[in-house]
Design brief:
CATH class: Alpha Beta
Number of helices: 4
Shape: globular
Strand content: 25-35%
Distance between the termini: 33 Å
Radius of gyration: 17 Å
Bound molecules: magnesium ion
């Protein structure tokens, strides 16, 4: 069942998303050669706590940290570690969730470390753009899979591939609610979008094959062929006149 949110609930989700967005801005500034993913985790966790929010991922199904930090061929769910130092030319996906006054916010960005190769720059641009293409389909009476199809089309026309086995999700008083939101598929399928639906849309895009595998740590998802991967995510509400991006702030 897809839980529709009242305007008051949507404002609470926006408040939670704001904390995530601000933390991601801090992290983006902190990313530089030599910093460890554990240090990034601690920056995020400290900021959430300062703002009175709890890290949503810490302890979720046993995930040990607050931030998912996934470098290069790592797709999602990388575990921050004092052993993982960023190097010039890396790309790192930073995925963060907060729980604030009973509501979740979820967003992710991928950023380059210093100067990055041309293919990495293009991957980041295409992945970010594919998320925007998906969000353009968020409006009342569109079908859920119109979002999926727009993302897939934007990615594949640039020669990259969309990860299939991880998907976006509804969000609200729980971190993961119905519906699941694949980043691929034909348009015109699935439930109609309705005002009050709140969705976390999150394309994961690989330079090479769409196949992925999970490392022995039981969390870190990597591309099967070792190619680079990127990930962007926004939490959005279906509004009267289109898409209200709850996790976007200037
Ligand atoms: Mg998510």
């Amino acid at each position: 069942m897809i839980i529709l949110k009242s305007p008051q609930e949507i404002e609470k989700i926006r408040a939670s998303c704001r904390i995530v967005a601000e933390a991601l801005q801090l992290l983006e500034k902190a990313v530089e050669p030599g910093i460890t993913t554990l240090e990034l985790n601690d920056i995020a966790e400290r900021y959430l706590k300062e703002r009175g929010a709890a890290p949503a991922f810490k302890g979720y199904r046993g995930f040990p940290m607050s931030l998912c930090a996934s470098i290069n061929e790592e797709v999602v769910h990388g575990i921050p570690s004092a052993q993982r130092k960023l190097r010039e030319g890396d790309v790192i996906s930073l995925d963060l969730g907060s729980l604030y006054e009973g509501y979740y916010g979820d967003a992710a960005i991928t950023v380059g470390v210093g100067e990055i190769p041309e293919v990495a720059r293009k991957l980041l641009e295409v992945t970010r753009a594919s998320l925007e293409c998906g969000l353009q389909q968020v409006r009342e009476n569109n079908c859920l899979s119109d979002i999926s199809h727009a993302i897939q089309t934007a990615v594949e026309k640039e020669g990259f591939s969309v990860v299939r086995i991880f998907v976006g999700h509804g969000i609200g008083a729980s971190l993961h609610e119905e519906p699941q939101i694949p980043n691929f598929g034909p348009p015109g399928r699935g439930p109609r979008l309705k005002e009050g639906m709140v969705l976390a849309v999150e394309p994961m895009v690989n330079v090479g094959t769409s196949d992925v595998r999970i490392l022995d740590d039981k969390w870190t998802v990597v591309t099967q062929d070792g190619s680079l991967s990127a990930h962007f995510e926004h939490t959005v509400a279906v509004a009267k006149n289109g898409c209200d991006v709850l996790s976007r702030f200037n």
